[in-house]
Recover the amino acids of this structure.
């Protein structure tokens, strides 16, 4: 039979409990951040009138529902400049 002292048993139990709680805390934080990113993924703000709106289409240049101006999605800056160049030609 394995002999273990009571203080060592208590320390081991507390350590395992703290590791489990810490792991659950980290997983909950990562899950919350992932959900926040998914919610903010489609949220845009008009560059002209500053109206916040949601656009779930795949259009790289969604129109503002309030003023009708074209808005660039984050990370799609080259597309806007290319479309403006095509319009100028």
């Amino acid at each position: 039979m394995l002999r273990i002292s009571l203080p060592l048993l208590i320390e081991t139990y507390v350590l395992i409990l703290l590791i489990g709680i810490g792991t659950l805390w980290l997983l909950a934080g990562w899950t919350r951040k992932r959900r926040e990113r998914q919610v903010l993924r489609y949220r845009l703000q008009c560059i002209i009138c500053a109206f916040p709106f949601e656009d779930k289409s795949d259009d790289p240049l969604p129109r503002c529902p309030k003023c009708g101006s074209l808005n660039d999605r984050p990370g799609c800056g080259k597309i806007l400049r290319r479309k403006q160049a095509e319009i100028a030609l």
